[in-house]
Amino acid sequence: MLVRLLWRPLPESWPEAVPQRPVGLRGLLARLREMAAAAPQRDDVERRVRRGAMQAIVREAFQQTVAAQDSEHRGPAEFADAWKARLAALLAKESVEVTGWAEITIAELDTDLGWSLYAAASRARAETIARATATPSRRRRDTDDEPTVSYEFSIAADGDGSLGRVQYAICEPCGVGLLKKISFSTEWHCCGFGTLALRELETRHPALTWYTTGQYAHARGFYERYRSGSDSPWTAQQHPCPHF
Ligand SMILES: [Zn+2]
């Protein structure tokens, strides 16, 4: 939904015909598709370009906020505020340069459209985060070395596909689980998915003691916090059992 709002062409009638109060994401998606199918003959090129330019600016503010995540580590609500502040800063300029566009003059744009697009996209992000769950574990046959067995699952939200991937292996005889890799694109950092993934591992394989492979400096705080509420060490001890 976030991708659709920020990257795909907006229907002409957006946002008037889109209910601003929640109708459920499915309803909203269906409505956008209907409008996209029905609108083209009534659209006009200039308005379409201006809509696209406004969308490019909202997207630019979003991408700037994502780029700051490596140093800022903002949770969802803080992220939304920072995104809003960046959008306000861009709209306060006379003109803005955005990749893929000639210089955009702000006075020519409909800033109300920009703010309602921000509101919808920001809500879509929050809903995606709230709906995210772990998919079933799938066996990865390529990497197995008896008696260890490798699996992977995704953190995914209905309608948005995979947001990130978790790879792990278990050794039943030793009662050991090893988190090998957990990867989310930067736009989904600090959304609680790391915690969700580790909880999921413990729930799926409750008899195991869990470890992880190398921890990057930025993730150390995360493991420290998580470990305090877990029965497993979640350390990066390299050989928790002889089979890994
Ligand atoms: Zn073992």
Please provide a written account of the structure.
- The strands form 2 sheets. Strands 3, 4, 5, 6, 7 and 8 form a 6-stranded mixed sheet that branches. This protein has a two-stranded antiparallel sheet with strand order 1-2.
- It has 244 residues and is an alpha+beta fold.
- The chain folds into 2 domains: 2-131, no CATH class; 134-227, Gcn5-related N-acetyltransferase (GNAT) (Aminopeptidase, 3-Layer(aba) Sandwich), CATH 3.40.630.30.
- The longest helix has 23 residues, at 45-67.
- Helix 5 packs antiparallel against helix 6 (111-131).
- It has helices spanning 2-7, 25-38, 45-67, 69-72, 76-91, 111-131, 193-204, 217-227; strands at residues 95-96, 104-105, 133-134, 138-140, 148-157, 161-171, 176-184, 209-212.
- The chain has 8 helices and 8 strands; from the N terminus they run αααααββαβββββαβα.
List the helices and strands and how they pair.
Elements: H1 2-7, H2 25-38, H3 45-67, H4 69-72, H5 76-91, E1 95-96, E2 104-105, H6 111-131, E3 133-134, E4 138-140, E5 148-157, E6 161-171, E7 176-184, H7 193-204, E8 209-212, H8 217-227
The protein binds zinc ion.
